[in-house]
Every structure is written in C-alpha cells, then in structure tokens.
Amino acid sequence: MLAWLGGAERDILQVTPRGVPEPAPEGLHGVFGVRSPARPNPIGLTAARIVRIDGASIDVDYLDFVDGTPILDLKPYFVARDLIFSARNEQIGRPGSREALRESLLFQAQRFHGEFCPGLALGVRLFEDFRADVLGMMEPRELRVTVPMDPPCLIDTIMGMARASPGRGTLQFGPAKFVRFDAGSQAAEYMLLPGAPEEAARILEAPGAVLYRRLRPALR
C-alpha cells in the first residue's frame, strides 16, 4: 500500500533514532537508513493483511499511517516473489520499552506463523525475555536456537522471530520442554513449566515464572 505522507518533514536528512545515544554526530543516521517520519520523498509504503472487502472499501489488520493519510495505490503481495525469509539487517536503536519489544515480536511471529495460538504466545514470551533481560533489548547479530520437537507452533514462532532454520544450522532440535538461545558469548536456556495457561491471550499476560524457568548460563 502506497500513501502520501503529507505531514512529513522534507528538509531533514539526518535524525537520531529512538534508542540511540543522543549526542551528535555519533547518534545521527541518514533518514534512508531508518524508519524516521522525516522523509525527503513523502511517499510511504507498508504491507497490510486484508481482512474484509465490502464493495469499494477494504479493511486491513494493521496500517502504520496516521489516520486520514491519502492512499496513492494498492499493490498485491506475491509470496513467490516478495518473501525473503533469510534477509537480515543491522539494528539501529532499540525498542523503547519491553511492551514495544513484545508488540514487535508478536507482529513478526503472526506474519510468519499465520495464526494467534498458545504456541505462538509462548514463543514470543521466551524470545522477549531473552532479548530484554539477556541481550539488553538488542537484536542478536548471530543466533543459534535449540527447540523441542513439540509443539510445532512454538517452532514456527521461534523460526519466524529469530530467522533460524535447520538448513543453515541455526535451528536444532533438542530435549522436550527446553528452549535454548545462543548468541555467542550470551546464552540462556529455558525450561518450560507445566500448568501454564492454555489460552494465548493469558500466556501473553502471565508472569514469566508461571511459564518458564530461565537457566543462565545455559546448562548445555
């Protein structure tokens, strides 16, 4: 979906992204390398899932444009051409809060797995804990993951968020009830606890101590 960002500042070429130390010039980044609302060219692009079509009206599930932003064009998304699972990028800044991190991970997980389910919610909570408490909100440059064979939804979720795969050797299968994240010098292993909530929404809101026990440093 292409839109006209009429309110965007067009005379700013460098900004300090959220989560980057403030002092210039070290904190300055070019606007083409970040998702700043300041754009020399006010044409915006976003991908959104269609949930309903009613005549000439189209409802989408997520749209990161300000309400009332004029839409210029609609383009189809082709999985055969547009899906790039192996793509990577350098992190600039970091999430402003743990809640923002969870929202971002949940968005990634649902886009990869395709449904909101208990296994997805549990995977989001595990990776959120690792990113927030072990990596200090940073995204790991290199990550290896070990997951149990069940549940499959948990495996999908972690693959989508961590961009790990068996073919590249970044995703392996290990003992039941254990998930391990290994980012080089920083690693943690999580033991999944019995008696966790069965509903996805309740898993997202439950205390971590109800869902898992973090073993750091990892045992294996």
Identify the CATH class of the largest domain.
Answer: Alpha Beta
Count of individual helical segments: 6
What value does the average pLDDT take? 88
At CATH level 3, the topology of the largest domain is 60s Ribosomal Protein L30, Chain: A
Characterization of this structure:
With 220 residues, the protein is α+β, with helices and mostly antiparallel strands. The protein has two domains: 83 residues, YaeB-like (Elongation Factor Tu (Ef-tu), domain 3), CATH 2.40.30; 118 residues, 60s Ribosomal Protein L30, Chain: A, CATH 3.30.1330. It contains six helices and twelve strands. It has a five-stranded mixed sheet with strand order 9-8-10-11-12. The protein has a three-stranded antiparallel sheet with strand order 4-1-7, with no helix packed on it. Strands 2-3 form a two-stranded antiparallel sheet. Strand 5 and strand 6 form a beta hairpin. Helix 2 packs across helix 3 and helix 3 packs across helix 4. The longest helix has 17 residues. It is globular. The termini are far apart. The model has no long low-confidence stretch (mean pLDDT 88).
What is the strand and helix layout of this fold?
Layout: E1 2-4, E2 14-15, E3 29-30, E4 43-45, E5 50-54, E6 57-60, E7 71-73, H1 79-82, H2 98-113, H3 118-134, E8 144-147, H4 152-162, E9 171-173, E10 178-183, E11 186-192, H5 200-205, H6 208-211, E12 212-215
Parallel strand pairs: 8-9
Antiparallel strand pairs: 1-4, 1-7, 2-3, 5-6, 8-10, 10-11, 11-12
Helix pairs in contact: 2-3, 2-4, 3-4
